Each structure stands twice: as C-alpha cells, then as structure tokens.
C-alpha cells in the first residue's frame, strides 16, 4: 500500500527537487559559468542540464517505475508518424515566422547565436526538455488525471521552470511577461496534444527544437 502511494505521489517530490536544483543553476551557478570561455561554458552548461534534467528521469523510470526507459518515454514508438507530424508542423511554423517576422516586421535573420545558443537553445533543447515534460511528467500525470487536466498541470509546471531565468533577466518587471507566460503555456498545451495524437516523443522533440530555432533566428 505504501509503495503504491509512493509511486503515485513521488512525481511531486521529484519536481520540487528538480525546480530547486534548476533555480540554483539559473540564479547562482550562472555567475560562475559566465566566467568560463564561451565554448567551455556551452559544453559545461550542456552537461549540467543533462545531469539535472535527463539523468534523474532515467533513474526514476528504471528504479521506481521499473520500466524500459526508451519504451516508457515512447522514443521507439510511432517514430515515422512522429517525424511526419513534426515536418508538417515545422513547415507551418516556418511559413508563419517568415510572413510575420520577415515580411511584416521586416526583421533580419540572425544566425550568429554562438555555440551555447545552437547547442543548448536549439539542438538539444527539444530532447532534454521533452524527456522531462512530455515524456515523463505528462505521462505520469495521465496515470492520475484525465488528459486535459494532466496537460494543463504539465503546462503550468513547464511555465514555472522558466521563472528562474526570467527573474534573472529582469522580465518580471515588465508587463509583457504576462504575454510571455501565456505564450509558453499555450505552446506547452499544443505540444501535449501532439504528443498524445502521435504517441511518439520524437514529434514534440523536433517541433520544440524547430520552434526555438525560428524564435532565435527571426526575433
């Protein structure tokens, strides 16, 4: 009975510890990372994010869920379907960003993002963040709640994990933060829907990285 209760509730303990560790990284450790050479900083930042985000999820799936990690995260299921959906959604995103930011706002394209930008904001962000939020948290919450409730809770948690970096960058002093919070929440809701409809983590991994790519180079 106690073990069954633990399996149902440990996700909240996990997220609390995860949020605390990531807050320390974003508000305190960042000062030391910024002292490093940019290339070294990018690599160290990647290793830290893997350590804080991905490794605990793998351990929890193996030790508490007692499941195959790849199978549990749906990294081996409906791969072709996931990639197909990702390609179509990426195409729609490309059209939107080009029309709105290039043709309407007349923005240029910024490709000089540095190693850290390319590595941690674009290339790996989809995999690392989707393993945690759609692959693990949404999956766990769907064991306890209906999909829309689980997806909404996951999206609130997804928004909250951005709070430390937003605070560090002083965004909470600007009324525009309300729009930012809303946008991130809606994006998370959409990613949850895509994850459910494709039953593959690859769809949201690719779309997440592509969205960050367009956001970085066009805005």
UniProtKB/TrEMBL annotation:
Protein's name in the database: CAAX prenyl protease 2/Lysostaphin resistance protein A-like domain-containing protein
Q: Which organism is it from?
A: Oceanobacillus limi
Q: Where is the CAAX prenyl protease 2/Lysostaphin resistance protein A-like domain?
A: 118-214
* A GO molecular function held by the record: endopeptidase activity
Sorted alphabetically, the keyword list is: Membrane, Transmembrane, Transmembrane helix
Superkingdom classification of source: Bacteria
Q: Name one GO biological process term.
A: CAAX-box protein maturation
**Transmembrane feature ranges:** 12-30, 42-64, 85-105, 117-137, 149-169, 175-194, 201-218
List, alphabetically, the Pfam families matched: Rce1-like
């Amino acid at each position: 009975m106690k073990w069954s209760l633990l399996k149902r509730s440990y996700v909240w303990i996990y997220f609390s510890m995860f949020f605390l560790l990531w807050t320390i990284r974003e508000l305190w450790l960042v000062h030391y990372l910024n002292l490093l050479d940019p290339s070294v900083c990018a690599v160290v930042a990647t290793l830290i994010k893997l350590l804080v985000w991905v490794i605990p999820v793998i351990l929890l799936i193996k030790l508490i869920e007692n499941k195959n990690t790849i199978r549990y995260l749906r990294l081996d299921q409906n791969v072709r379907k996931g990639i197909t959906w990702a390609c179509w959604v990426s195409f729609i995103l490309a059209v939107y960003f080009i029309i709105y930011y290039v043709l309407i706002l007349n923005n240029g394209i910024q490709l000089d993002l540095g190693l850290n930008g390319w590595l941690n904001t674009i290339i790996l962000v989809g995999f690392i963040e989707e393993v945690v939020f759609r692959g693990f948290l949404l999956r766990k919450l769907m064991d306890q709640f209906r999909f829309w409730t689980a997806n909404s809770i996951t999206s609130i948690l997804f928004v909250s994990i951005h709070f430390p970096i937003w605070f560090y960058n002083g965004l909470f002093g600007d009324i525009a933060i309300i729009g930012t919070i809303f946008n991130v929440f809606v994006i998370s809701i959409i990613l949850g829907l895509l994850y459910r409809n494709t039953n593959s983590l690859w769809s949201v991994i690719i779309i997440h990285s592509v969205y960050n790519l367009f956001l970085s180079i066009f805005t």
